[in-house]
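Ticket #4471: complex job returned nothing on first submit. Input attached below:
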Amino acid sequence: MSILAQLRQDISETVSAVYKTEMESSQIALSHTIKEYGGDYTYVVFPLVKSLRQSPPVIAEAIGTHLAESSKYVKSFNVVKGFLNIEVSDLFWSQVLSDSNNSDYGIQPSNGKKMMVEFSSPNTNKPLHLGHIRNILLGWSTAQLAKANGYEVVKTQIINDRGIAVCKSMMAWTLMGEGKTPESEGIKGDHFVGEYYVKFDKAFQEEYLNWQSTEEGVSVYNTSQKENEVQEHFFKRFKNNYFNQYSKLGIASKEMLLKWEAGDPEIKALWEKMNGWVYSGFNTTYDALGVDFDSTNYESDTYLLGKEFVEEGITRKVFYKEPDNSVWADLEDAGMDKKIVLRSDGTSVYMTQDIGTAHQRYADHKMDNLVYVVGDEQDYHFKVLFEILKRLDEPYAANLFHLSYGMVDLPTGRMKSREGTVVDADILIKEIIDEARKSAEARGGLEGVADKEKEEIYRKIGLAALKFFIIKVTAKKRMTFDPKESVDMQGQTGPYVQNAYVRIRSILRRLDEDMQAQLTDYNLADYKGDFHESERDILLQLETFPVIISDSLKKYDPSLMANFCYSLAKAYHRFYHDCRILNLEDQDLKKMRLILSKSVADVLSRSMKMIGIEMPEYM
RNA sequence: GGCUCCUUAGCUCAACUGGAUAGAGCAGCUCACUUCUAAUGAGCAGGUUUCAGGUUCGAGUCCUGAAGGAGUCACCA
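Support reply: We reran it on our side without changes. The output follows.
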């Protein structure tokens, strides 16, 4: 039991002793006391007023008095209105310190459950961008947090490697590629293929524009336009029809898709070659971000899944068939619409695939929980998917979660690929590491460090700045990404947190072996001194670590962990400024502060790791 | 138009899920390095939490309505 839980227990026992009322200790809500008042933790007694029929100050006073006598964790108390402010004893602090000094502090033992987390899930026609980075960081953090909470974790992604979009870049390369490859051009594979996707679009636009003034184009406009519709408007609306019915490029791409579906060996070979380029590009980006996956699904393998399972669902009355043979789920009694799950020609839609993939994943992994990290534009889709899986009695259906996150905007507005404002992941990563290098060189704190190690440090600092900037924002909120602010390394940033760690490591490096041995053997119960205000601030933070680990997973909100990292680092920076450590006469005080520092370093390093951020030893 | 989400300091974000006088960072203005890393610390200034009602001991948080923004309502993914 944590020290705070014991304090809660003491309070609950006090309430029952004084008022003969039973109260679950888990019901006792303690908050940190606000700076202006004396005390460390505050117990709000207002909720007791009704049942006890006494005024709030009287209740608080009575509980405080009894508590101060009965609990060894309580030093003193004061009452302001209905707020009982408790000042905890030095024993409380030293036990928090001793708890946090364990290498598994806050980590839950295995709970025997398996959580699958799907994230990233890119398309193979363009490189990863800023939006993917937010997705990846959320998914990765969720996976780390799940591990810390005792789950076995399977990190997974599903790659959108087929369909008309993929055929467009294949078509463009066939027509305009001249046999070039990423190697021959010295370009990363995903960027290379992405360029052909763009080339296709350009060529198509040009083709379309030319067609509009041909005899055919003019005649289509004259016969299909709405009353007095201007040409520009009509042709904007007509684009998809043009692609499907008139465009040489469009028709060729569609033919390619059909050939692909029929298993045409030539097309498949081209497809495999180009996707191979893309994957090697993706892997470079994943490596740069320091993430990996335990399993990968390809849409080309899963896009036919689900059809049989849906057929089965018809007999189980989860779905019904329309006269035209299309299959639907009627979710109106659950406040949703009717949703199609099989087209009238028997082919599947996105929903069918997702049903099938979930079913298949359970067959493969027997996971208890399944989390999808997907943008909030798909909120409704997942609401429907989860309802359908529930009706299909899938065993994991009660433990599905859509970790929905808001779009990343730029200061200039939304990223738009057509306007070329999309922030590319690779470029962003490179720029931020360059920025870290610039800052570090300007400071000149890394003299004597080997060049190779320096680069590693710049990488860690740059990525910390980028990742922290993104992950500190609550997932479901839309966020603004200002490239200028994201390279900041001061204030509420990743490097600020890293700096607290580096300062501690620098101190610990100076200890001789004798002192290190003494620290390992030191029993904090021997420390008889009291705790400085800035030490108590640190301990107050350290105490919350286990709760943060559990809350940030329960709420699927890694920003809680990021904010914890910042608070702890902030408390340490202040302590570092206020208190000396190495040149202290008082050996007990010195050892206590060293242990405190070491605990902070360990907790910082582990908590940052949970949000995907590594710590440098120097900076 | 129906449904869902968002709106907190000039800017970017917090607020332990209903608790005290709403907190940080950035930007601005002061101050502190012969000291364990100044990528730091201390201070000043910055607020009618979009608006109007309601619920109660108590509301940024819950309810109703309004305004502004976004998403979604395809036999697209």
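The CA atoms of residues 60 and 84 of chain A lie 5 Å apart. Closing as resolved unless it happens again.
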